[in-house]
Amino acid sequence: MREHGLLLERRRKQPGVVRHHDGRVAVKTSNTRWCSDGFEFRCDDGERLRVTFALDCCDREAISWVASPHGYSGDDVRDVMLKAVERRFGQMLPPTPIQWLSDNGSAYTAEQTRAFAREIGLLPLTTPVCSLQSNGMAESFVKTMKRDYIAHMPRLDRLTALRNLEIAFTHYNEEHPHSALNYRSPREFRRMTATST
């Protein structure tokens, strides 16, 4: 088959795609590494909502998120990136590049998304599937949101779901305890570390 050119061409590594990772997702300092992923759920009327989010790998805060009735897109990922940088740094860029950890979804690996990430001070990193370097913190967040919030919130239609999703994200950030943060919420942990430095 090789002699007659009948084999599929091997997938080439994308230029500029770095996979430098030590296998541990959590970091000791906020604004060092952010991870991102998405999840979807169905409203009672049958409509779907797809949510893309950014999570700090130190303090676990869900920094930013967007919800769309359409598939996950590069525009959604870029919106989440920009909102996260603006929430943490205002109109300034991060003083040092922040690792942006994601899976290999096309919305994350698109060159336009990767270039935009670098422009706003993020260093895009992708992780191999089913490895120690997987995006486990983001996956854990998805499970928490679905189990503790979405399963119990009213979601008659898209507008109702969006209103309650806003409440869910706020509650997660302000009230949800994490064992890794000594059972503090993400924002409580951030306030505590800000006053101790």
Automatic annotation (TrEMBL):
GO terms for molecular function: nucleic acid binding. SUPFAM superfamilies: Ribonuclease H-like. Residues 11-194 form the Integrase catalytic domain. It comes from the Bacteria. One of its GO terms (biological process) is DNA integration. This is Putative transposase.
